[in-house]
Amino acid sequence: MKRLALGLTLGAVLFAFSPLTPAGRGDNKEKPIGIPRRAGARGGQAFLDKYCAPCHTGEKAKGNFRTEALTPESFKDRALKAKWAEAVNQLNSQLMPPREAMQPTAAEVAAFVDGVAAETKKAEDALKDKAPVIRRLTRDEYKNSIKDLTGVDFDTSGFPADPSGGGFDNNARNLTVSPLHVELYANAAKQILDQALVEEGQPRPEKILWRFDPKNTAMDSRRVKLDTKNNFVIVNGGKNTEEGDWIVVHHESWDKGVDARNFAVPVEGNYIVRLRAAGRVPNRQQVTAAAEKILAARRDQQLQQNPNGAKYHQEAYQRDLKHFATDPIYGYGPPRVKVVQHLGSQPRTVAEVDITEGPKTYEFPARFTTQSAGINFHYAYDIPRVLENFWCQGHDDFARPELLIDWFELEGPIYDAWPPTSHTRILFPSPLRQSNEREYAKQVLAAFMRRAYRRPIAEAELAGKLALFDQARQDKLSFVEAIKAPLTAILASPNFLFLMETPGKLTDHALAARLSYFLWAAPPDTTLSQLADSGKLSNPTTLKQQTDRLLADPRSSEFVRRFAGQWLGLNQVGANPPAADLFPGYDRHFELSIVGESEAFFAEILKSDLDALNLIKSNFVVVNERLARAYGIPGVKGDTFRRVAVPAGVHRGGVPTQASILTITSNGTRTSPVKRGTWIMKTLLGADPGLPVANAGEIAARVPGIEKATVRKRLEIHRTRPQCARCHSRIDPLGFSLENFDASGAWREREGFGYKGRVEQNDPLIDASSQLPDGTKITGVDGLQDALLARSDDFLTCLSTKLLTFALGRELSLADRPLVQGAVKSMKANKNTLRSLIEFTVTSEAFRIK
């Protein structure tokens, strides 16, 4: 099988199982080495002496790489162990030995890599017990743990972001704790318990139900008195048309907003924002008719001002009218509303939803404090502002989806019971509450600690927390305030904030936690805890059954979001979005949808037990209406993602064709074959071309003497520099294959050089053909996908490496090579399903030991 001749860094070469056989390798003609071999050198040392030492020995060793330092004892030294890995890296990336030097055979390379991996594993096994690393909960895991434990949906956005390691934010070595963390955790524990618990005997807060009826009035002129003394709320319908009871919001403008402001709820809590709304969507005939009126009025005005230009004015009229009659952007979807809450000085988007045509009541949960507040409803359907329509976008006669608002309400605070479930989840009913307060407190703390620490509790641990309660009661605090003292200590304890795992085989309780945080990013549920109590969870059959159960649970969406999102880089979407003037079709709804597509696509492959190679190329997509319009797929209605067969002529199917990936691998103003090629190497093949050489520079924005220099042409000129050619020869062919997708992910046949990047008649056709260093010729995205499928072992190896890294919470090394090999073998034996990879992972020795 041919292999992509790609440069591999350590993370990739650890798992390049099939020996590479480049041109010249295997032609093992003896050449003088020029230095004596080490006496008795064997295995890897002998290999280095034979093929590497001529250039890499002594004080003038090239690249500051000296083979004489690599002895059997060097595997115990972190820095020197990395040198062994570097040697492997250079061999597998075909960078060394140089072409003019003696070449090792494929068998010699394989033996060297196997030997280094085995020695690395021995050294790491010997050091494991000496340096155990416990893992802190990530922000997501903390949030989910708090919700499971207390019922409180706590906002963790104020916590420091979790640093990434090995591509994921759950890497134990990176999840350190700073003094800031300690302070934030302590403050958060107090806030959470204050929200969860209410004082005994406290009456249920009276519920409000405020209805706001917007009218077409001057801005801020209409004030309505609510049912409290100081609430004179501003209710603004904006300068919108009224149709009976309905306010018709036609487009987004500073004076078109519908809102209620300057009010304060009497009690902090969870509320419901309720909206009565409908939508109206003009069809293509209505769009064309409306445009004809506007265009005719413009033409007539121009004729009055310049009668001699009648021919030009008529041609412009016909040309622009054809735009409205044919351009896909006027195949409108439903109007969209963005609901924004203002609390104090901080705006927060509560929801963004499509509004269906029939009148309907929509509900949005939001938490309000007693600060001054407001609710805004923004028209959120974006029509691209292009040359033919930008001048008429603000006209009310311009046909576009219309948002109709009847009224909106604010109701709350909302409780599912009284006392709320968050209270009774912690302070459960018991006759001991009245007869023996201290014993009741002990039971409450025992139950809470058991769930928070995710294991049985020792009597001494319980006694320490009970002493905090006793002290608080002696200080005359109420029972609820007194119990908060030990509860706060529990939520700030390392036993809650860390996954406490002792070296060696994991206990069933530690295994339950590792499994649930892997697939749910949340603590073990009752079933897992009971199996751990009975000692049955560690049975491989039971583990597989529980894995299937956890994957079937809606909470497994956290695994999809966190693993797929970080592996594919979806968290980068929107960081450098396509420029609005060059790519007007890229809007907020599109941005949300492209992330949702990639997540839903991965979820479909997982839930339906499909071949994971569908991630490379598939005959279906998972899209909503917004994406279907962008991709040219008819018949998809609604904002829900669903599986749809790819129609003929639509160039989609597989992760490389998804707009999320195509946008994050572009530069905002143009495509980047370098970024795209690098992304494919790193993300799909587990290869890394390494960092660019110093002073490599950017590709030129303009090329003197060439009027229309494509990105491809500029890159070809760029890589004529010797320092650039080596990397670009491996990267660029992969990136060129995606050149038919522009920087916003839209399909194109030509590279546009017209106004704002428009494609003109004589603009150059896209050349998406290329040749890989091993001679494989590929054309376009289909050729790329076929080439990747031909290297399916590399992809499965990369996928297995990524998932194992995420599951174990650590970066893999050469010592993990047999583990990854076993994962790939398991996938192949089970139709390459993601489920088989996950089940292999949770039953592996690596997952069940510390």
Number of E strands: 18
User: Overall 3D geometry?
Assistant: flat
Look at the structure and give the mean pLDDT.
Answer: 87
Total of helices: 29
Taken together, the total number of domains comes to: 4
Runs with pLDDT <50, length 5+?
1-37
Instruction: Report on the biggest sheet.
Output: 6 strands, antiparallel
- Class based on secondary structure composition and strand pairing: alpha+beta
Whole-angstrom Rg? 32 Å
Portion of residues in helices? 40-55%
Task: Give the distance, in angstroms, between the N- and C-terminal Cα atoms.
Answer: 38 Å
Please state roughly what percent of the residues sit in beta strands, choosing from under 5%, 5-15%, 15-25%, 25-35%, 35-45% or over 45%.
5-15%
GO molecular function: electron transfer activity; heme binding; metal ion binding
Pfam families: Cytochrome_CBB3, PSCyt3, PSD2, PSD3, PSD4, PSD5
Keywords: Heme, Iron, Metal-binding, Signal
Protein name: Cytochrome c domain-containing protein
Note the topology.
Blueprint: H1 10-13, H2 43-51, H3 78-92, H4 106-128, E1 135-136, H5 139-150, H6 179-196, E2 208-212, E3 223-225, E4 232-236, E5 241-243, E6 246-249, E7 258-263, E8 269-280, H7 284-305, H8 310-326, E9 336-343, E10 346-354, E11 360-368, E12 373-379, E13 402-412, H9 421-426, H10 432-435, H11 437-453, H12 459-474, H13 479-491, H14 494-497, E14 498-499, H15 508-519, H16 526-534, H17 540-552, H18 557-568, H19 588-607, E15 620-623, H20 625-631, E16 642-645, H21 659-664, H22 673-684, H23 711-718, H24 722-736, E17 769-771, E18 777-779, H25 780-790, H26 792-808, H27 817-829, H28 834-843, H29 845-848
Antiparallel strand pairs: 1-14, 2-13, 3-4, 4-7, 5-6, 6-13, 7-12, 8-11, 8-13, 9-10, 9-12, 15-16, 17-18
GO molecular function, one term: electron transfer activity
InterPro entries: Cyt_c-like_dom (IPR009056), DUF1585 (IPR011478), DUF1587 (IPR013036), DUF1588 (IPR013039), DUF1592 (IPR013042), DUF1595 (IPR013043)
Keywords: Heme, Iron, Metal-binding, Signal
